[in-house]
User: What shape does this take?
Amino acid sequence: MRFELKTIGSNGNVESLDFQALDRASAVRQAEGRGYTVLSVRSRSGLLESWRRGPRFPVALFSQELLVLLGSGLPLVDAIETLAEKERHAEFRAVLQRIAGTLRQGRTLSAALAEFPQSFSPLYVATVRASERTSDLAPALARYVAYQNQLEAIRKRLVNASIYPLLLIGVGGLVSLFLMLYVVPRFARIYEDRASDLPLFSKLLLGWGQMVEGHGALVLGVIAALVVGVLYALRSASLRGAIVDLLWRAPAIGERLKLYQLARFYRTIGMLLRGGVPLVRALSMGAELLHPVLRERLAAASRAISEGRGVSESMDAYGLATPVALRMLAVGEQSGNMGEMMDRIALFHDEEITRWVDWFTRLFEPLLMAAIGIVIGAIVILMYLPIFELAGSLQ
Assistant: This one.
């Protein structure tokens, strides 16, 4: 979700910020972590607001291009000015020009990026800030690009797995609407004189056809209003939260959602650790990626780690580590290579999620096709049933 915050900056000026966060509390924490005093928070999840929203700054592409320019020997300021000169989008070009201007004032790149929270996430800013301590900006950008590519690969797998079921639902829905709004009303005219002799469900279908025939504009208006209402409701933060909570309570789906979030969380923490971010700070930054239930557990685990308990022990005690992750975390503690181990944990869980998605789609698709066939077949049979009975009586 996106939130618009009215804040007071360090210079005392009132500023409007745009944050991507799981909830209002997360957005407020992000702003306060950057030194702002929050005055008000407004959700930008409305349907019309989402249509008006412009394109987001291409952080991954910016990182790739900056990495190439730095690798070719250009100084940082010159590289960003080069990117600004070739940028065609006016808003993005203005962001790059302001970043270059901030750098020419002697400030760091992380400080310049932090001035644009609507474009650069706290995770990205922290990655750059950690690289500035060790003077390895190029490797940090390469890690971030690899991190984004891995997340994008997982997202594409999930999207590709959902395309065919959504296509089936769309086609089945359109066919059902065509039958109910066009074919059934015409059959209703045929059966008007025999309405008393029809089976119960055929009578109900006939009643629907007569209503569509007599009040077609009203029916279409009601259907359109329902569609718009559903779309608007799905943009509601409270409704989406209720749906997510319901899915989290489902035995099989909830476990997979938890595994997906933990995989993304471990990959993020691994990237931050390899970039030089301290563990406890990395955990607090990765908390924004988790469901509120897991976030509370992570806060307790972070306190335990701060008090000197082991990472694997703390994560396991609060339900944030699978058996495989627990063993890998223990190995990472012993070898002192926790960042690489967390990357391996994320990779293992990603493969497990991919296998489960493949299995689920193979099972769900034929069941969905059968359900759509039953619905359409029932409508057709109810329309033709009186004809079958008439043919039987003639014999």
User: Anything to note?
Assistant: The beta strands are 2-8, 14-20, 37-43. Residues 2-44 form one domain. The first helix runs from residue 24 to 33. The CA atoms of residues 212 and 219 lie 6 Å apart.
